[in-house]
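#struct-pred
JK: can someone run the complex with adenosine-5'-triphosphate? inputs below
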Amino acid sequence: DQGSHTELTGDLNPSQRAAVEHAGAPLLVVAGAGSGKTRVLTRRIAYLLAARGAHPGQIMAITFTNKAAAEMRERVSELVGRRSGAMWVSTFHSMCVRVLRREAKTLEMSSNFSIYDADDARRLLTLVARDLDLDAKRYQPRALGAHISNLKNELIDSESAGSHATNDFERRAAEVYVEYQRRLSQANAMDFDDLIMRTVELFQVFPDVAEYYRRRFRHVLVDEYQDTNHAQYTLVRELVGTEPTESGVEPAELCVVGDADQSIYAFRGATIRNIEEFERDFPSARTILLEQNYRSTQTILSAANSVISRNPNRRDKRLWTSEGDGEKVVGYVADNEHDEAAFVAGEIDALVDQGAAQYSDIAVFYRTNNQSRVFEEIFIRLGLPYRVVGGVRFYERKEIRDVLAYLRVLANPDDTVSLRRILNVPKRGIGDRAEACVATHAERERISFVSALRDAVADKVPMLNPRSRKAITAFVELLDGFYELVDSGTEIADILEAVLDRTGYRAELDSSNDPQDASRLENLDELVTVAREFTESAAEAAALAPEPDTDEEPDTDEEPDVPTPEPGSLPAFLERVSLVADADSIPESDGGDEADEADEDDDAGVVTLMTVHTAKGLEYPVVFGTGWEDGVFPHLRALGEPKELAEERRLAYVAITRARERLYVSRALVRTQWGQPSANPASRFLDEIPAELLDWRREAPSSGGSSGGGSPRAATTWGGRPGTGSDSAQSQLASGGMRTTGFKGTRGDWKDTIALKLDAGDRVNHDKYGLGTVVSTEGTGPRATATIDFGGAGTVRLMLIGSVPMVKL
Ligand code: ATP
Ligand code: MG
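RT: done, structure tokens with the ligand placed:
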């Protein structure tokens, strides 16, 4: 009785409804931004359950981030209650982890494998490259890692990589790949790309395993399909199948939604081929186009269409909205990045004062994370509430990684990268030489690093001096003490506390005078809190879990869906944090409709700062697009590279289409980049917005005039918006007044400016120079500089204040 479910389809347009109700053949929904693709996907799940008799255990929905997955699960559980627990809603990575843990035996692996993120992978690659005697400049771990990742995204395994190599670099990288995989497997670890590739392999090599999952998941749904790569596409195809299996299991129903114009992950191997060739990949497929945009005003939509239409080789889409024209796009040319941030802050303040928006309605976008610094500085000074999404990610902080490495070693003693990370952290007198002796011994004897450490204790490692041996013995005893805690079922939070105390990690930070160390301690406390909450919620989930077999489940082999590892266990905790870290580094997708409500509770009254990548799938009433300069957005790297430029333009399209009511675009005449002021020309994307849609609040000085000389602030025209209220920060800024103490607009007063804090030995990643190691730091405050060795790019001295396009690793 499908006709009676109007509560699920009544507020959809005919095309959306067709997509929700479609049954049978694979379905592709292609449509521009804001046309309700994600809404169709969630509704379809609800409809499958309510109208088509599907049960949650038959549904697998793949979203781009864990956050999107959580939101979708929440909505479905409102609909069907506890039974929704049986539904798989996850990212590609989490889904694969689940399958792989369950099927580890088939692949002759141990199910407690570690998941290596990009940083772990880079560490391992550094070791491999060193052992293979590769020239560290020509074969940088990052480049090797990117190449291997590309190969994996194309499902090219280490054995066949050599035959795909076309130049010297690729040939050497193929050798590295082989050794890297050997070490990974020795460490009982997989990197993110392996998760996908091994699952594909599992399905291809073991048809009975593939059939098990196909029998089980009768409905597979994928959001943001334009950002899938070849490996992910293959995974989907293996999962649903294209013809019946030998024992007669029909292909599962597939529904994917996407927009080729929003493909912004080509650098991770994503390919819009997957959308373009969908009908070839799945021959009986049906395609539905959506053409009505429900998100933005016509002005915003026209601006977006005009920009994206400059891209070659794209299918033109007709996107229309029944919303009116709305406000014009506001443009602003700032003297420099501080002035730009002051404009944004002033404008936000004015909008809120007028009641035109709440803080939570507002998002500020930039191209790269390091651009957030200037906004944060001024928001803090003005007392504007904000949060930065992404940015310096919690799980990438050194102290968090150190302590998690202890836990990872406790869960998987073979995890060499983690073990070597903590070997001398905090310092306990196990130097590089001692580490090398142990590593050599491990290689020679073909034993794991941890076994080699135990050999060291038993004095079986040659060349090891007695002092190192003693230090290693103490370390092994320390670890054994932790293993006892794990074995006796100690709570994860308490194990963490023990690690912090017994290793001296906390004491070291406690006794430090560096204010950074105080915040490191806070972060570690936060991690302990995360662990406590994890244990509590696992206990709650266990208490709430449905009795097995109480439901009238259909005949699909509905195992009580016990996820491995055991809920609440240490491996489960580590899996959670690895995958959260993953989601952090991937844009937080979507949500669309109802998602926003959920968000509002969490973030009431907070302006959101994020990169455009992170904004994919989201929407805000007010959007500030900042740094629209050639060399910033589009990114420097894309200038003169047509392909990359096209990707940047899609990114601009994503940025514009996040806005519902008001869009601002701004640029700075001068911006400090790489420690130097540089004058960037206007972004070409600005010119691509039709002039009649733009209301320039402040334009660039005409070429005849003084370019930034004299008093740029005096040249600022804040007008154009009568009735802005004289108490707004905007007008105070305009008159040079101060809202909070110490604020002087764009110049002077660096006192509480946030500087990048670095120490000798820290690893950094610089937008222009790449990876480097801090040799030394000099000076303090506004004069703080660091001398950094960027390998092939040379040794450079950089200022650490202002918008440094560099992150600490
Ligand atoms: P993106 O390409 O940015 O991911 P999308 O195509 O997934 O966008 P949604 O996020 O699903 O679009 O929807 C955009 C907005 O339009 C949401 O606020 C959603 O609630 C609203 N919307 C979608 N369809 C309808 C409809 N039929 N009636 C009213 N509002 C709708
Ligand atoms: Mg969407």
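RT: quick notes.
Residues 548-563, 583-603, 704-754 have pLDDT under 50 and may be disordered.
The longest strand covers residues 659-673.
JK: thanks, will look after standup
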